[in-house]
Design brief:
130 residues; alpha/beta; 3-stranded mixed sheet; 3 helices
């Protein structure tokens, strides 16, 4: 059998099934409740809370949270537990698989991000690197 005949008899490989896209972010019940409280206290219409990452701090990156008056054209939208999170498109790769939580402790109260992509944090916990 010639090489030409063998290649003509091969069937094309079946396309590989697409891998399921990992969930970008999850939000805990306590974080969702706190976001609802903050939006209610704001006193004006709000599209949700925008989450981003910016260059800041001793480790290089810092999480940002801000009210969003409207959805941006490329924002990733996460609807969970009655709230809307809008993820800045520049932050998407840094946040895949992250859980947003809200903690109240004796010396610290606030939002905490449990990010599997982090390779380390600074001593004060305000910044991270991937």
């Amino acid at each position: 059998m010639s090489v030409e005949t063998a290649s003509a008899e091969r069937k094309p490989a079946a396309p590989r099934p697409a891998r399921p896209r990992p969930q970008l972010m999850t939000i805990s019940e306590s974080a969702a409740a706190r976001v609802k409280e903050l939006i209610a206290q704001r006193g004006k219409p709000t599209a949700g809370v925008r989450i981003g990452v910016r260059t800041k701090g001793c480790s290089g990156l810092s999480y940002t949270l801000e009210y969003a008056d409207e959805k941006g054209p490329k924002d990733e939208v996460i609807e969970a537990q009655g709230i809307t999170l809008l993820v800045d498109p520049k932050a998407t790769l840094f946040l895949i698989g992250t859980e947003m939580d809200y903690v109240e402790e004796k010396l610290k109260t606030g939002f905490v991000f449990k990010n599997p992509n982090e390779k380390g944090r600074c001593g004060c916990g305000e910044s991270f690197h991937v």
